[in-house]
Specification:
Shape: globular
Distance between the termini: 66 Å
Number of helices: 13
Number of strands: 27
Bound molecules: manganese (II) ion
Structural class: alpha+beta
Largest sheet: 8 strands, mixed
Helix content: 10-25%
């Protein structure tokens, strides 16, 4: 007899007709859209002029109003879509991965069937005329530290002899963040105030605006299915708990962080504002872009059994390219385009997203729909793929040259940071995440 498929294996997304490269939507401009062709169909929360926030699906430069579409969808999908008459995706994803998949397939069908043009067109709105919101009501936010090159780069600056702590290769390191200060792309970031310390021990700390404001390039992993308190999630089932991904900028005040982080980890240096991109690219949409987790070095320990699953190692990572651009006030005034600071892959994670879910719940901690797990800063192994300014400028020692003659070691007021991401693979249509953008304003 064949072994029972674990729940996780049964719910891990599969490649199906919604991923066919030749599929085209009849919505004008969607087929050529760099991020949102019909193969993607990310979920988000929007409001059109005069209407309340509600759930929608992006198609090209348009948004399909889910609750409004319920009336023309087959009954199983309509049931899920009607939950979209809410200001968060939580009730939509409460139908489970199978329900969301059913809805995504039905939306794909009406957006690719030209005979549905006349009945669907009134349910579409222009995205640029809409306001976007946080996609989920976020109960809890946890930020991990899975970018091993980032951990080594930062560790070397703080502890030259001992960059990685001895727990790093056994424990997915993380801390509980602050969900109340997460904002969607486009909301300005006010420079935080905080305590900072001069390098010499004798000088007391001062309170004032941070002078070392930084960004962190991360992916947001959205929890689509929770667990009960006291009931850990088996690693083989953990992948099925992931709703999808967005981009995350974990703004960080490095001078505040350096003074406060021992012994309990980051606190005010990272709780003043975090930015997420508003579209959730679903686990289903990302099925073609699953890849093997990069092998650990032979000298690294194996993960403990409760964090190890062969199928997760074989296909639990995501081949997603991420980049960071910035534009200063002077660059905007001179009409210069944003300058790319770095570009790298999400496979810089030392742990898979399923390992993060399994570890988080391994104590019996209860995760819930809409919880957000940050990956940690994802830096590659070279300078062109470093995901924070602290790494690129070597802690402020090497200024970064910008077009127009300016330099930066950390962010100044008026600087705008823009993150993007996409997945592509031979034989499939490229899909993207849209933007995670915000501008720094003075304290
Ligand atoms: Mn972070």
């Amino acid at each position: 007899m064949l072994g029972r498929l674990s729940e996780g294996a049964a719910t891990v997304s599969k490649i199906d007709f919604t991923h066919e490269a030749n599929a085209r939507s009849w919505v004008a401009g969607a087929a050529d859209h760099p991020d949102f062709p019909v193969q993607n169909l990310p979920f988000g929360v929007f409001s059109a002029a005069g209407s309340l926030p509600r759930c929608g699906v992006a198609i090209g430069d348009h948004i399909l109003d889910l609750a409004a579409a319920a009336g023309i969808l087959p009954s199983a999908a309509a049931d899920v879509a009607s939950s979209g008459a809410a200001a968060s995706l939580n009730p939509v994803f409460a139908h489970g991965a199978a329900g969301v998949d059913e809805l995504r397939k039905a939306v794909f069908s009406i957006l690719t069937d030209a005979s549905r043009h006349d009945e669907v067109t009134p349910l579409l709105v222009q995205a640029d005329a809409c306001e976007m919101y946080l996609p989920f009501e976020i109960g809890d936010y946890t930020d991990f530290y899975t970018g091993i090159h980032h951990a080594e780069n930062i560790g070397r600056q703080l502890r030259p002899d001992n960059p990685l702590m001895p727990n790093y290769k056994y424990v997915p390191i993380g801390y509980h963040g602050r969900s109340s200060s997460i904002r969607p792309s486009g909301v300005d970031v006010r420079r935080p105030l905080g305590q900072t310390k001069a390098p010499d021990a004798a000088t007391p700390p001062v309170y004032g605006p941070t002078r070392r404001l930084d960004y962190e390039l991360e992916m947001a992993i959205w929890v689509g299915k929770g667990n009960s308190l006291g009931q850990p999630i088996a690693i083989g089932d953990a992948g099925g708990h992931i709703a999808g991904l967005s981009l995350l900028n974990d703004w960080s005040a490095r001078d505040v962080q350096a003074w406060e982080y021992q012994p309990l980890g980051p606190f005010l240096a990272k709780n003043f504002h975090s930015t997420v991109s508003p579209w959730v690219v679903t686990a289903q949409a990302l099925a073609p872009f699953r890849v093997a987790q990069p092998a650990r070095a032979d000298s690294d320990p194996a993960p403990l059994p409760h964090l190890w699953d062969a199928s997760d190692q074989a296909a639990g990572a995501f081949a997603i390219m991420m980049d960071v651009r910035m534009r200063t006030a002077k660059m905007r005034a001179e009409n210069r385009p944003a300058f790319q600071l770095s570009k790298g892959s999400m496979t810089a994670m030392y742990w898979t997203p399923a390992q993060l879910i399994a570890h988080h719940a391994s104590s019996g901690c209860n995760l819930a729909i809409g919880d957000l797990l940050g990956t940690g800063t994802l830096s590659g192994s070279d300078k062109a793929s470093m995901g924070s300014m602290m790494e690129i400028s070597l802690g402020g020692r090497e200024p970064i040259g910008l077009p127009g003659g300016e330099t930066r070691i950390f962010l100044e007021d008026g600087d705008e940071v823009v993150m993007g991401a996409y997945a592509e693979r031979e034989g499939f249509r490229r899909i993207g995440f849209g933007e995670c953008r915000a501008c720094v304003v003075g304290a």
